[in-house]
Amino acid sequence: MPITVQLDVMLARRKMRSRELAERIGITEQNLSLLKSGKVRGVRFDTLAAICDVLQCQPGDLLAFEAGDENRPD
pTM here? Predict the structure, then answer.
């Protein structure tokens, strides 16, 4: 999929652990891990908004489009 999740980068910039973010936005660490690894097909806007609120960032800071990856296997 040409959309990649760059949540690890923002967590590092904010010096925050995944566990703390998961607790603050109300999802399990396992679900957050799946999101970070890009193994999900979608994310709810309210979850994305909660992540952005806690990390003080924009959705574009977390998601990137990489052209040319359309044929990459999942």
Answer: 0.84
Neighbouring residues of 27: CB distance < 8 A, sequence distance ≥ 6: 47
pLDDT tens figures, 15-64: 999 999 999 999 999 999 999 998 998 999 999 999 999 999 999 999 99
Angle at 54 between CA 38 and CA 16, to 5 degrees: 70
Structure token pair of residue 65? 């489009």
Instruction: Locate all alpha helices (DSSP H) within 14-58, ordered by sequence.
Output: 18-25, 29-37, 45-55
DSSP H or E run through 64: strand 63-65
Is pLDDT of 74 > 90? no
Dihedral angle of Cα 32, 2, 41, 59, to the nearest 10 degrees: 50
